[in-house]
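ok so i was messing around last nite and threw this chain in just to see what happens. nothing serious, just curious
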Amino acid sequence: MDSRHLSNCSICGGELEYLFSGEEFSCFYCGKKESGNIICASYEAHYVCDECHNLPSICYIKDFILSTGIKDPLDIVFEILNNSPVSIPMLGCHHAYMLTGSILASLRNNGLAVISDSDINEAFARLSSQAVGGYCGLSGVCGIVPAGGIIYSILTGSVCGKDKEQRITMRLTALLSAAIFELTGPSCCKAYLFKSMEIMLRSLYSDFGFRLTERDFDVKCGFEKLHPHGCLLERCPYYKGATVTLEELYRKNTEILENVTLPPVLVNAKKSPDPFKDFPKAPC
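result:
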């Protein structure tokens, strides 16, 4: 496939135009009419709905996550990015599904928590409601933020009205959002994915004692030529490569978590099906 189709319009490879206000368009593939904010800037003005844009890659990601035995989440991510039989666009909310899926699969494959196929299907269903293409710019929230929160919700049983479960989940999403802010200008889904993976590895160890990798977190992107808005190059930590050692990754008092008071949470579904059963209920 022409690499332009991975970066711009999936139909003709033309540049995309990002609209401030939504307009009604018909999807080139499924014909659905809806309000959209991303349109091909060519004279043909191709429009692809978010579902059709992401569906092939998300279906592949879910099938891969459900079947893989790979234990290291970063290996899972790069296996998808580098060896997928379907085209993985440079930008898009499929990166959020990669984060959620790779972490849940790693927890399951390392025997740290009982993660069922139903849990993974539930996680992907939740993401479909909050990870929407282009809304990082329109609302200020990247879909990879709730992707991390969903992982914590699956682990803790967090739902609206819970106390410590919801608090620790929201604390994680605040960390993710702050880190993504530091990388924005313009946005890059690959950088967001890598940084969020680092934060997830740190946080899962600091919060629950889960070690999902036994090697340094070493990432060199390699996708800079595909970025349609221009790679940050040297301003991005992953352009030339970034390494976080295991010692740094698994410090209990990491820089990311400094001065944060955590609730006494223990999560291991094999030992405790309901680790929060003795917690007081929230007043609401």
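not much to say yet. Residues 195 and 223 are 15 Å apart (CA to CA).
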